[in-house]
Design a protein that fits this description.
Layout (H helix, E strand, L loop, with lengths): L2 H15 L12 H10 L5 H14 L3 H5 L3 H8 L5 H18 L8 H4 L7 H10 L10 H10 L7 H11 L5 H14 L18 H13 L1
Helix pairs in contact: 2-3, 2-8, 5-6, 9-11
């Protein structure tokens, strides 16, 4: 089986298992998604969703953020961790958007990654969810499950992104990554891969091996 065939099987299995492929971050506009994704670094989406209502109520627009004091942003996002760095990035990001992009969130990974604190993971999420372009968000769930499936041998985000772009149908790539997050939380967890209940255990490289072991021992 080729990797493209394997990827197609994974896409269809996850689509059936998780028909609603949506981002778990809560937002109302592109700027809020951009900021929420920056906050999610080394922090759970659930925690970010608890923090952002107050943040966005205090700073409802890009202009409001550009006029903010970094200390005030810090206080509102403190529980997200790395709050000083994140607050500094958010303020600098908003100022650059206002000054160089006329307040419009860029629609390419290349332009988005020119913004302070924005890496490829964040950029791909915005490109995929806001502009509905092919995108591959290589978060920890994506990297882990893609490796277990046999779609990549790398754990380096950029290489995993390249490997997945090479085998995934472009129109499915963004939703596929959202579904990997859902599957990673529910079934294919970091500490334990629950292969016995996995919708991909018939073709997943790891799943096939895990399920075959008990039979081999018998």
């Amino acid at each position: 089986m080729t990797k493209k065939q394997l990827a197609k099987l994974a896409v269809e299995a996850l689509k059936k298992e998780y028909p609603d492929a949506i981002c778990s971050l809560e937002y109302r506009d592109p700027l809020q998604l951009l900021i929420s994704t920056r906050l999610s670094a080394q922090c759970t989406d659930a925690r970010v969703n608890l923090v952002t209502p107050a943040l966005f109520a205090r700073f409802p627009t890009l202009e409001a953020f550009t006029q903010a004091k970094v200390e005030e942003i810090e206080e509102l996002i403190r529980s997200c961790g790395l709050y000083k760095t994140k607050a500094r990035d958010i303020l600098a990001m908003c100022k650059k958007l206002a000054e160089e992009y006329d307040g419009v969130i860029p629609d390419t990974v290349e332009e988005l990654t020119k913004l302070p604190g924005v890496g490829r993971k964040t950029a791909n999420l915005v490109v995929g969810d806001i502009y509905h372009k092919p995108a591959v968000v290589t978060d920890t769930h994506c990297i882990r499950i893609a490796g277990r499936l046999g779609l990549t041998k790398s754990k380096v985000p950029l290489q995993v992104e390249k490997d997945l772009r090479a085998v995934l149908p472009p129109e499915e790539s963004n939703d596929f990554c959202h579904r990997l997050v859902l599957h990673g939380r529910a079934v294919c967890q970091a500490r334990t891969a629950h292969c016995e209940i996995c919708c991909m255990n018939g073709f997943c490289k790891t799943g096939v091996l895990e399920l075959a072991e008990p039979k081999a021992k018998k």
